[in-house]
Structures are given as structure tokens and as C-alpha cells.
Write a structure and sequence with these properties.
Oligomer: single chain
Number of helices: 5
Protein name: DUF3817 domain-containing protein
InterPro entries: DUF3817_TM (IPR023845)
Distance between the termini: 49 Å
Shape: elongated
Helix content: 55-70%
Order of helices and strands: HHHHH
Radius of gyration: 27 Å
Mean pLDDT: 81
Strand content: under 5%
Keywords: Cell membrane, Membrane, Transmembrane, Transmembrane helix
Membrane topology: Multi-pass membrane protein
Pfam families: DUF3817
């Protein structure tokens, strides 16, 4: 069976201007230098900028979520172990932690998708929001790994 071939546009080639070269075809014309508009460098610059923004949002939410989780633990200890009844003063903590955790999950998924990490990293970050003190430890490791990856990407594309 013969498949019909689609019409493919030929690449625009630059003719060699040297007379001794005999008008032969050479490589495609590409801009050179830092002022040139390289689509891959522009795309890398945009991706790095977006990933750094997602990382900053994640860092803030990881710290806020960790603090709220510690406050929730203190509230639970005071309420159920020490039997101190400050219900009016600390009743808002579980609700605040719940909504802050939802926002934290959004920032986790945003950073995970922009950094293109494996699924295990997502699970670790999600669990860090419900285990006391773990959000601080995971945030430090995530920030270190993300910065290293973004710096390597910036060096690779020269941005």
C-alpha cells in the first residue's frame, strides 16, 4: 500500500555568498549573540520566570501551612490533653488551617507541574502539609532542588 505524502515546505536556506563556494546550499540562517531573538532561549526565560514565581508562592504557603499546623497541634493539646477550654479564642484555628491547606495544595500542584517532577515528589509535598514540622524540611529541600534545576536550565540556554 502506498501512502500519500503530504506537501512539506522546504526549509529556507541561505546561499553561500563566497564566489569560490560556487553557490552551494549551507545551514539555515540563525541569529547569533545575546541580542538575537532565539525562540528556545525566550521560551526558557519564560519557563524559568514562571517556575521561580511558583517556587516563591510555594515557599510562602509551605511556611504559613507549617505554622498553622503547629498552632493546630498546640490547640489540640490544650483542648484534649490539658483540658483548657479556650474555645472562643482558638476555635478558628482548625478552619483556618483547612483553608490554608487547600491553597497550599494548589501551590504544590502548580510548582510540581512547572518543574515537571515525578509523582513521588508531589506526594511528599502534599503529605508535608499534614505532618507537623515536615513542611519546613520539605520546603528547604524543594527550594534547593528547584533553584539548582532552574540555574542549570538558565546556564544551558544562556539566560
Amino acid at each position: 500500500m502506498v501512502f500519500p505524502t503530504a506537501h512539506v515546505q522546504p526549509r529556507t536556506l541561505v546561499r553561500d555568498a563566497k564566489p569560490e563556494a560556487g553557490n552551494r546550499m549551507t545551514t539555515p540562517a540563525t541569529p547569533v549573540g545575546k541580542n538575537a531573538t532565539d525562540p528556545s532561549a525566550d521560551a526558557a526565560r519564560t519557563a524559568i520566570r514562571k517556575a521561580r514565581g511558583a517556587l516563591a508562592r510555594y515557599r510562602v504557603m509551605a511556611i504559613v501551612t507549617g505554622v498553622m499546623l503547629l498552632l493546630l497541634c498546640v490547640e489540640l493539646i490544650l483542648n484534649y490533653v490539658v483540658k483548657v477550654s479556650w474555645e472562643d479564642a482558638i476555635r478558628w484555628i482548625p478552619f483556618a488551617h483547612g483553608w490554608i491547606y487547600v491553597v497550599y495544595l494548589v501551590t504544590v500542584v502548580d510548582l510540581w507541574s512547572k518543574m515537571r517532577w515525578k509523582f513521588g515528589r508531589l506526594v511528599t509535598q502534599v503529605l508535608a502539609g499534614v505532618i507537623p514540622v515536615m513542611s519546613f524540611v520539605v520546603e528547604k529541600n524543594v527550594h534547593r532542588d528547584a533553584e539548582a534545576k532552574l540555574q542549570a536550565l538558565a546556564d544551558q540556554y544562556g539566560v
